[in-house]
């Protein structure tokens, strides 16, 4: 079953058109990557889904048209967006950040269980549970941003450059945790990444964007076998 569908999506910042007709589908429980250089339109594609940029075309989630909805209305449907730059709440503790992620939920017992799950998924956060967001390292802030999104119990997770600015070992640990989350929860994902090696450990398929256009689409295995992908994104 298709959970998210984008067809001929065009997006704008003011009068400037950034996306030139992007299309992709994400099956329920599936994971799709979006690859491309800086300025290719990767982040804008996620913003079009979450309702933070003006767009045209088709954007449907579980059969519902998302265009025209406010970001909070999109989130209420079960879409969690972890933006580039993480966006943790600097003055709140790790535990408070996690509880903010669950602010729409009424199941107190389930919220407590999911806090425990997030701390198991990211054990570094357990050690910093009383620390404020501003006191965390970049890697810990990224883990907290993902964990806070998990707390909303989404059906779809939008991940924007989860490895950006992280040491290779930390980035690998973050992606291993996301992979575990996917296998255990069945959450569908759209993963924006410049590091294709990391993205390909998680996603089933991907699209490649150049200047707002989709220029390649295929399964992970197909894309890894393409010379142009190896040269541009895999260091081959």
Give a written overview of the molecule.
By secondary structure, the chain is of the alpha/beta class. The chain has two domains: 2-78 and 154-233, P-loop containing nucleotide triphosphate hydrolases (Rossmann fold), CATH 3.40.50.300; 89-153, no CATH class. It has ten helices and ten strands. A six-stranded mixed sheet has the order 6-7-8-3-9-10, sandwiched between helices. Strands 2-1-4-5 form a four-stranded antiparallel sheet, covered by helices on one side. The longest helix is centred in the last third of the chain and has 18 residues, at 168-185. The chain is globular and about 45 Å long. It starts with a strand and ends with a helix. The model has no long low-confidence stretch (mean pLDDT 93).
From the structure above, extract its key features.
236 residues, alpha/beta, Rossmann fold, six-stranded mixed beta sheet, 10 helices, globular
Q: Note the total helix count.
A: 10
> In the CATH hierarchy, what is the class of the largest domain?
Alpha Beta
- One letter per element, helices H and strands E, the order comes to EEEHEEHEHHHHEHEHEEHH
Termini separation? 35 Å
CATH fold name of the largest domain, please?
Answer: Rossmann fold
Largest sheet: 6 strands, mixed
Briefly note the structural class of the backbone. Answer: alpha/beta
Overall tally of domains: 2
Strand order of the largest sheet: 6-7-8-3-9-10
Taken as a percent bin, the fraction of beta residues is: 25-35%
Q: Provide mean pLDDT, rounded.
A: 93
In helices, the fraction of residues equals 25-40%
